[in-house]
Write a structure and sequence with these properties.
Elements: E1 6-10, H1 17-28, E2 32-37, H2 55-60, E3 62-64, H3 78-94, E4 98-103, H4 106-114, H5 124-131, H6 135-145, H7 147-152, H8 158-171, H9 175-184, E5 193-199, H10 202-218, H11 221-230, H12 236-239, H13 244-251, H14 257-279, E6 288-292, H15 299-310
Helix pairs in contact: 1-15, 3-4, 6-8, 10-14, 11-13, 13-14
Length: 311
Amino acid sequence: MAEGRVIVVMGPTASGKSALAMAMARAAGPRAELISADSMQVYRGMDVGTAKPTFAERAEVVHHGLDLVAPTHDGFTVEDWLDHAKAALDEIRARSGVAIVVGGTNLYVKALLEGLFDGPPADPVLREELASWDLDALRSELTRIDPDAAERIHRNDRRRTIRAIEVHRATGTRISVLQAQWRDRPTALPAGWSLVGLTMGVEANNRRINARVRSMRAMGLVDEVRALLGAGGFGAQAAAALGYRELIAHLRGAMSEDDAFEAIKIGTRQLAKQQRTWLKRFVDTPGSTWIDAGDGLTEELMADLAKKSLA
C-alpha cells in the first residue's frame, strides 16, 4: 500500500527526526530508502559533527545524500543537492520503493517541494559581458547592489554571483528579496507525498542540543576534525559548519577545547531557533501532520507515527 510513497520528515535539530525516519523505514520494510536533506552531511568524513547516520543504520537502510563531496570542495549548492535528490527519487520510484526525506536543511526541503526560485531568463549578452570581469570585480558589484546575497553566496561561486547580478539588472530587484518572497510562499505537497513535522519547546530542544554536543565530544569529534585537517583540510564552506569551525579554531590555538564546545552549544541553539522560525512556513501545508515531540519521541509514538504515515 505504501509503495511509491514519499514521506518528508522535518523538525529542528536534535528533535528526533532522524530516529523517526529510521522507524518509518523499518516499518515500511526493505523497499524503504532514506534521502538526507542536510547541507553538511554531503561532506565525506564529517560524520560525528553532522550527526550522520551510523554505518549500522546505513547497512540496514539505503541512504542517499551522504558523502557526496570532499570537505575541501567549495561551492556545493542547493541546486547540486536537488539534482542528486531528484535522481534518487527517480531510482526509488523505479524500484516501487518508499522514499523518506529527512530534512535538517529546510531550504533543501522547500526547493524539493516547490522547485527553485526561477527569476528572469538568462541574458546571453549580459552574461558574456560579466564573464569577462574578474572575480573581484564581480564580487564588488554584487556587494554594492545586494549585500545580503553577497554574504550568502560563496565568494568563489562565480556562476551564482553572475546570476545574482543578472537578476538585479533584469528586474531592478535584489535576488535576495525575490528569494525571500519565494521562501515565504505557502508550500504545497505534490500528489502522493506526505509531511510529518516535529515541534519542540525551546527548553526541551536546548536540553537535547546540549546532550548531543556532549555526546559528540565523547564520540571523538575533536579527533575527527584533527584527522580531516591532516588529510587535506577544509574548504571555506565546510570549515564554516557548526562544530567544525569552533574546533578548527581550537586546534589552531585560538580557544580552549572547553570554550570551543561551549561555543558549539550556543551556535546550535541559535541554529535551532532559526529552524523553528523556518518551520512555521510549513505548518499550514495541506496534508501535513505536526507532532509535539515533548522531551523526545518515545519508541511507541514513533511506531504509531510510522504506521499512520504508511497507511
